[in-house]
């Protein structure tokens, strides 16, 4: 009798563990930003101005790690240093020292418009809620914070909605 009870408990624990793993894996993949929308005063979803013409990707690795970047229109066309020069302190100093005040303002505006973060993620057991525990971000103020997003799928589209907010993002799964 004890053996049967132990066997039943073991099977239930294994099933719960596999259910949690499969929920994490459910989001696995690379998605391209399709649209960012806000609810207007009439309750209708409208495309958010900041995201119009922009670009973005979100990736979930299926093991509890994710990353996202969203950039506005024109960001990738901004002229700056090449990759090697941009990680060289002296080259960055030389570049910024040679810029006018207006050019510096434009650079700050461009660089601050790239929204990036990396996080660990979990799925809440009782709902379609993904929890992002942010590790790092382009916005230092959000490092170490946690955000919750309702998620659902419509075909190959992942829809993430800010809980208790008026924003949703639609992402198309990449093959």
Q: How are the SSEs ordered, and which strands pair?
A:
Elements: H1 2-26, E1 29-39, E2 45-47, E3 55-60, E4 65-71, H2 83-86, H3 89-97, H4 101-112, E5 115-123, E6 129-137, E7 146-154, E8 157-162, E9 167-173
Throw out a few tags for this protein.
175 residues, Lipocalin, 2 domains, 9 strands, 29% helix, globular
Write structural notes for this entry.
- With 175 residues, the chain is an alpha+beta fold.
- The chain folds into two domains: 2-72 and 113-173, Beta Barrel (Lipocalin), CATH 2.40.128; 75-111, no CATH class.
- Helix content is 29%, strand content 38%.
- It has four helices and nine strands.
- The protein has helices at residues 2-26, 83-86, 89-97, 101-112, and strands at residues 29-39, 45-47, 55-60, 65-71, 115-123, 129-137, 146-154, 157-162, 167-173.
- The protein has an eight-stranded antiparallel β-barrel with strand order 1-3-4-5-6-7-8-9.
- A hairpin with an 8-residue loop joins strand 6 (129-137) and strand 7 (146-154).
- The chain is globular and about 80 Å long.
Order of helices and strands: HEEEEHHHEEEEE
User: Which architecture name of the largest domain does CATH use?
Assistant: Beta Barrel
Low-confidence regions: 10-19
Quickly name the level 1 CATH class of the largest domain. Mainly Beta
The computed structural class is: alpha+beta
Instruction: Count the beta strands.
Output: 9
Instruction: State the share of residues found in helices, binned by percent.
Output: 25-40%
The largest pleated sheet is described as:
8 strands, antiparallel, barrel
CATH topology of the largest domain, by name, is Lipocalin
Number of domains: 2
Largest sheet: spatial strand order: 1-3-4-5-6-7-8-9
Instruction: Count every helix, treating DSSP H or I runs of 4 or more residues as helices.
Output: 4
